Amino acid sequence: MVQLLPTGLTASVAVAASSANLGPGFDSLGLALGLYDEVIVETVDSGLVVQVDGEGAGQVPLTSDHLVVQGIRRGLREAGVDVPGMVVRCRNAIPHQRGLGSSAAAVVGGLAAVNGLVAQLDRPGLSESRLVQLASEFEGHPDNAAAAVLGGAVVSWTANRPDGGGTGYSAVPLRLHPDIHLFPAIPQLRSSTAETRMLLPEQVSHRDARFNVSRVALLVVALTERPDLLLTATEDLLHQPQRAAAQPESAQFLQLLRQHGIAAVLSGAGPAVIALSTAPELPAEVLEAPAARGFNVTQMRVGDAVKWNSGVVVPG
């Protein structure tokens, strides 16, 4: 039986941006970034009010179609509860349509907010594995969602459930080597993941598949134990070359970084680029190019796991 939550409950969430693929790990590898959206939910007598500040303000729907609201609704059903009405406040720092996991962060933020609400009634919340599963169902792959839930670097995968209940989404964390520094390069240009995915062929050659298998296996080693191997380990044949024509500025900047010996990859489907380096700073000659190409390059720490609380805003 569904329990109706009382009015006056509040919950807050901080959820990180993420970078998927990391070159060869298409739809499998993810990395949380230290850039956070915040969600605050309050239960009220009736209705739905959605407020958005920061990224996406004036652009995203302020209705039940908002991804945070969809995440909340899905989480409520999973927890066996409902609300008479709610006010949802979103404070967004993650840029939209740049390949930084804003959609996954929205869904994870909504789902995690339910944990903050039900905790006040001493009801069990959603486990990390359930958060990964439910958030991944929205996009059909768990790379960004798993990174947003677990924080840090993750390996994710899909498999048919043994009970025949559809697709199962799972992930495990990696212990990122402490010498790796992250340098996201975020452009003003936007891109649609759905559109860039259409550029990818339905089939790939055995040679290309073998190449990427070797690189993604090496990348796990590079991320955890041998960061000196990052440049080779981030080579990719399955998606980045195919997306280059649609994102020429990103492709050119990525190539420039790699020519200087820096392991650079598209962040997700782009157009953001992320560099992974063992040096605490990028070379000056590399930093001269981004502004002319419309990129803002910053150093960013690794993102934390999603945090939720009851009634108190959780800092990122």
TrEMBL record:
Q: Identify the keywords attached in UniProt to this record, alphabetized.
A: Amino-acid biosynthesis, ATP-binding, Cytoplasm, Kinase, Nucleotide-binding, Threonine biosynthesis, Transferase
Domain GHMP kinase N-terminal span(s) in chain numbering: 67-152
UniProt xrefs under Pfam families: GHMP_kinases_C, GHMP_kinases_N
The EC category is: transferase
Q: Where in the cell is it found?
A: Cytoplasm
- One MF term from GO for this chain? homoserine kinase activity
Instruction: Report the sequence similarity comment from the record.
Output: Belongs to the GHMP kinase family. Homoserine kinase subfamily.
**What does the record give as its pathway?**
Amino-acid biosynthesis; L-threonine biosynthesis; L-threonine from L-aspartate: step 4/5
> EC number(s)?
2.7.1.39
Give a yes or no for keyword Transcription regulation in this entry: no
What is the name listed in the Swiss-Prot or TrEMBL entry for this protein? Homoserine kinase
Record the organism: Mycolicibacter senuensis
Q: What is its main location?
A: cytoplasm
Q: Is the Ubl conjugation keyword given for this protein?
A: no
Organism classification: Bacteria, Bacillati, Actinomycetota, Actinomycetes, Mycobacteriales
Q: Where is the GHMP kinase C-terminal domain?
A: 235-290
Q: Where does ATP bind?
A: P95, H96, Q97, R98, G99, L100, G101, S102, S103, A104, A105
- Provide one Gene Ontology cellular component: cytoplasm
What reaction does this enzyme carry out catalytically? L-homoserine + ATP = O-phospho-L-homoserine + ADP + H(+)
Role noted for this protein: Catalyzes the ATP-dependent phosphorylation of L-homoserine to L-homoserine phosphate.
